[in-house]
Design brief:
Layout lengths: L6 H5 L46 H10 L3 H14 L4 H15 L11 H5 L56 H6 L22 H6 L13 H5 L2 H15 L2 H14 L5 H13 L3 H14 L3 H13 L3 H14 L4 H13 L3 H14 L4 H13 L3 H14 L4 H13 L3 H14 L3 H18 L2 H14 L4 H14 L2 H14 L5 H12 L3 H14 L4 H16 L1
Helix pairs in contact: 2-3, 2-4, 3-4, 4-9, 9-10, 10-11, 11-12, 12-13, 13-14, 14-15, 15-16, 16-17, 17-18, 18-19, 19-20, 19-21, 20-21, 21-22, 22-23, 23-24, 23-25, 24-25, 25-26, 26-27
């Protein structure tokens, strides 16, 4: 199958080194859509209606701020009300909700595994999983997915997706060294931990929103008293869970409240399940979510329960759950998207594409579905069709570096050369951090190799490393260019760096094996070829090299 990288290395004989075969499409992020223009009103019109009149009752004005998502102003006004009347429950509840909304993160979409969760996980997982039943053990897909020669893979062995999601941000490392080195968040140099990324650290959100100290003193809070007041209890729970990130006290409050409701309130059971999930008690969370579903059929509860099954590495159970949910909620976009994500992570790309198309039948502006279908067409050697999907995103108002990078690649491989460099220039101007800039320069290097300008390619790959010193693909391709110049030692050093940064890639191992075999270092060549075969068992050139080396060792 023809790859989307440089064309000539794949046509060469076994002894020639191979470039990193695939340019990497950037993942379309969930942000970037242009806001809708607001209609301007006549001077003085609508002031009383929006709560800005000076004689408006303060509590209604605070409620108006809350409705318009001006949470800081709402909180400040509620604070002034509470100074005058400390026992005002309405102001207290409104301020609690405003502070919660400032730091609120949808728990359904948050699925970051930290180092502790990955390496200190006490849940037993079968090491030899049956094909198509595990997400954590690579190489168990049922087929239908592209090979690593066509589509780049993550260190967990799954192909990269077309859309940034929390579960695709980091792989699943097998050693502590890889865990510390590879999973990075987008805006920090630290590895992902349980409290970084989307979860605020304990107490830090309080200090951000209340410079004078915490609004509620958790140590002096009488949870049993609030549990008997359902309306206050729900606002207080969300404040403790999202704002304070104090899962233990939140669980205690939810347990007391559900007991007061005689275990008939499904909402409290869902909250208890969320607390258990955060604490790593997945089986207890499963029981709570199932009990809540028996009382009230809700889409959110189905999504929470599916998260539990995915964390327990039971994707087939999660798929069955989603399909049962579709029987009760036909055409629900969230459920269809969940099925598509699982198929994509299990390397069943064709099934994932079909479900993403079903998503677009229900919601034709779904950014994730459009981006993933476009990415699938690009890696299936259909850049013209992929170009239509990315152009659709541009028409919808998505305007970011990743989109223009992907447009540039599609234009190049669709032979629309007049738009290629323009798109890459726009992508460079829109890059928000050095990692994005590095990816654009890396793909520009691929374009340069494609047109035969190796000097430009060399400069582009070097600029990639200037912006991101851990870009393994750039190290590999620079090594190939150094080999062509006859600089053997520099090439070996670059390939060793690429192998240590990305042990899941087969190209650095194969190139190092080829180079070592040329200079007579057969032992190192054999070791590197074995690593290449482990990363990509179907690579024919690696198998031929191993066969030749074994015949040579047999002669000795």
């Amino acid at each position: 199958s023809r790859s989307h990288g440089t064309s000539y290395p794949s046509k060469r004989a076994r002894t020639e080194p191979s470039f990193r075969q695939t340019p990497q499409l950037c993942k379309a992020g969930p942000s970037g859509a242009a806001p809708f223009p607001r209609r301007r009103s006549a001077p003085g019109a609508g002031r009383r209606g929006c709560g800005m009149a000076p004689d408006m009752e303060p509590l209604f004005q605070a409620w108006s701020y809350f409705r318009r998502r001006k949470f800081a102003q709402c909180s400040a006004l509620c604070s002034r009300l509470l100074e005058r009347a400390p026992g005002e429950q309405a102001a207290w509840s409104l301020k609690t909700r405003a502070l919660t909304e400032m730091v609120y993160v949808d728990e359904i979409e948050v699925d970051q595994e930290g180092i502790a969760e990955m390496l200190l996980d006490e849940n037993a997982v079968a090491q030899v999983a049956r094909p198509g039943t595990s997400l954590k053990v690579p190489g168990t897909s049922q087929g239908g997915g592209p090979s690593p020669a066509v589509r780049p893979v993550t260190q967990s062995g799954r192909p990269i997706t077309g859309f940034v999601r929390p579960s695709t941000q980091s792989g699943r490392p097998s050693t502590m060294e890889q865990a510390i080195k590879t999973p990075r968040t987008a805006h920090t140099a630290r590895p992902i931990t349980s409290a970084s990324g989307s979860y605020p650290r304990l107490g830090t959100a309080t200090m951000l929103t209340n410079p004078d100290g915490p609004f509620i003193n958790m140590s002096r809070l009488n949870l049993a008293k609030y549990a008997h007041k359902p309306k206050l209890a729900k606002a207080l729970f969300e404040y403790i869970f999202h704002h304070e990130n104090d899962i233990k006290n939140a669980l205690d409050l939810a347990a007391l409240a559900t007991e007061h409701a005689q275990f008939k309130d499904w909402w409290w059971k869902v909250q208890i399940g969320k607390c258990y999930y955060r604490l790593g008690l997945y089986r207890e969370a499963e029981k709570q979510f199932k009990s809540a579903l028996k009382q009230q059929d809700m889409i959110d509860t189905i999504l929470y329960l599916a998260k539990v099954y995915l964390r327990l590495d039971q994707p087939v159970t999660a798929l069955n759950l989603f399909k049962q949910g579709l029987d009760r909620f036909p055409g629900e976009v969230a459920l269809l998207c969940g099925i598509a994500r699982i198929h994509e992570e299990m390397n069943n790309i064709s099934s994932a594409a079909e479900y993403y198309k079903d998503v677009l039948k229900q919601d034709n502006t779904h950014v994730e579905a459009i981006a993933c279908i476009g990415s699938n067409h690009f890696y299936s050697d259909q850049p013209e069709i992929a170009l239509r999907f990315y152009r659709r995103l541009l028409q919808m108002g998505v305007y970011n570096c990743q989109l223009f990078n992907n447009l540039g690649l599609c234009c190049f491989y669709a032979q629309q050369y007049d738009m290629t460099l323009t798109s890459f220039e726009r992508a460079l101007s829109l890059a928000e951090n050095e990692e994005e800039t590095a990816d654009v320069w890396y793909n520009l290097g691929h374009v340069a190799v494609g047109i035969g300008d190796l000097n430009l390619a060399y400069q582009c790959f070097q600029l990639t490393l200037v912006n991101n010193n851990n870009h393994a693909e750039a190290y590999n391709n620079l090594a190939v260019l150094e080999m062509r110049k006859g600089h053997i030692e520099q090439a070996r050093a670059l390939l060793q760096t690429a192998s240590s940064l990305a042990p899941h890639m087969y190209e650095p191992h194969f190139n190092f094996a080829t180079l070592s075999e040329k200079i007579g270092d057969l032992q190192r060549s054999y070791t590197a070829a074995q690593k290449s075969e482990e990363a990509f068992p179907g690579h024919v050139d690696t198998q031929q090299l191993l066969k030749q080396l074994r015949e040579h060792f047999a002669m000795l």
